[in-house]
């Protein structure tokens, strides 16, 4: 049985680790909250699992502890920041706060951020937006990363390029967080660590052969784009689009030699939409609720279960884990124990020892 932890205690634990690593309490709380939110919704590779890497970046100086993002451009309804390696969850949360403040006036606010340290799970930023009644589109790319090969090619070109979306609906929002690769690098690394194969041949080795062995990726191979070996041109096209939105609009990416040394730093694209800028909230919700209801009530292939709408499981898991405790992937606390010992922070006690 997996161990469960009180959500508030997990957040306090992570925040204290970040504070002992030199972050101000307010910034540490933001990071801890973002990572916790990811695990609450079931995105286990980019939640508390990313606390250790962020502590590494703070310790090495790869993440800036202090300072503000530089404003490159600002027209009110759109702005572009240079984060200069500020912690990704903090700087993106700042950008979302700015966009939310401006949304009542503009109806639609778009932002880009260049050189943000890794922003982790995109879905983790969506609850506050969708609960306020707004639509969110969020994507990022990694200029220094080449892990995903284009259709027909064996050389990795793109980063995973996740795309997250949320819209208010009925009992749960329409919400998803997907990468433009068949699988995410975090799942490949986890499979390699656990000594198991991936469920499908979603990789290519360095010679262009399809593979389900994580070692093929680690030894110079690549991850297939969405659509896989047969329809990967769709995923490659979407990858290119998202890199244009994040890197090109932000003005920093693959065209800059210095970007190759940026490790996991992200280029970010964010857009918030107020449905009431286009019509009544009731009209909007009538359509989104109908869409989710029709989807959920459709016939399943097996005939004995209801279809699951994107967002339904994550929203349910979030509510359940806030009540009953957060179920962490088994290796997460194991990996955080050395940091807790080093920074002299007590480990949280599980609710079910």
UniProtKB/TrEMBL annotation:
This is Ldh family oxidoreductase. InterPro entries: Mal/L-sulf/L-lact_DH-like_ah, Mal/L-sulf/L-lact_DH-like_NADP, Mal/L-sulfo/L-lacto_DH-like_sf, Malate/L-lactate_DH-like. It comes from the Bacteria. PANTHER family: MALATE DEHYDROGENASE, OXIDOREDUCTASE-RELATED. It holds the Pfam family Ldh_2. Belongs to the LDH2/MDH2 oxidoreductase family. Keywords: Oxidoreductase.
């Amino acid at each position: 049985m997996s161990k469960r932890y009180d959500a508030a205690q997990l957040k306090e634990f992570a925040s204290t680790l970040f504070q002992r690593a030199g972050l101000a309490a307010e910034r540490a709380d933001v990071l801890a909250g973002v990572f916790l939110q990811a695990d609450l919704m079931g995105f286990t590779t980019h939640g508390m699992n990313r606390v250790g890497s962020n502590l590494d970046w703070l310790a090495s100086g790869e993440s800036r502890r202090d300072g503000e993002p530089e404003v490159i451009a600002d027209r009110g309804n759109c702005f572009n920041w240079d984060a200069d390696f500020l912690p990704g969850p903090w700087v993106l949360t700042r950008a979302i706060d700015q966009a939310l403040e401006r949304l009542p006036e503009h109806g639609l606010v778009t932002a880009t951020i260049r050189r943000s340290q890794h922003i982790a799970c995109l879905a983790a930023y969506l609850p506050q937006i969708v609960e306020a009644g707004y639509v969110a589109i969020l994507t990022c790319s990694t200029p220094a990363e080449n892990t995903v090969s284009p259709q027909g090619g064996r050389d990795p070109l793109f980063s995973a390029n996740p795309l997250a979306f949320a819209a208010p609906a009925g009992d749960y929002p329409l919400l998803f967080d997907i990468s433009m690769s068949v699988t995410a690098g975090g799942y490949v690394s986890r499979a390699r660590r656990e000594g198991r194969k991936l469920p499908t041949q979603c990789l290519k080795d360095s010679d262009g052969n399809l593979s389900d062995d994580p070692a093929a990726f680690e030894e110079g191979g690549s991850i297939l784009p969405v659509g896989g070996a047969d329809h990967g041109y769709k995923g490659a096209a979407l990858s290119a689009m998202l890199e244009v939105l994040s890197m090109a609009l932000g003005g920093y990416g693959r065209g800059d030699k210095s970007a190759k040394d940026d490790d996991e730093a992200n280029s970010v694209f964010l857009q918030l939409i107020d449905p009431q800028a286009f019509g009544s909230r009731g009209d909007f919700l009538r359509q989104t609720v109908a869409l989710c209801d029709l989807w959920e009530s459709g016939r399943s292939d097996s005939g004995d279960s209801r279809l699951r709408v994107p967002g339904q499981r994550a929203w349910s898991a979030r509510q359940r884990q806030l009540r009953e405790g957060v179920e962490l992937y088994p290796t997460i606390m194991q990996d955080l124990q050395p940091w807790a010992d080093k920074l002299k922070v007590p480990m949280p006690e599980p609710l079910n020892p």
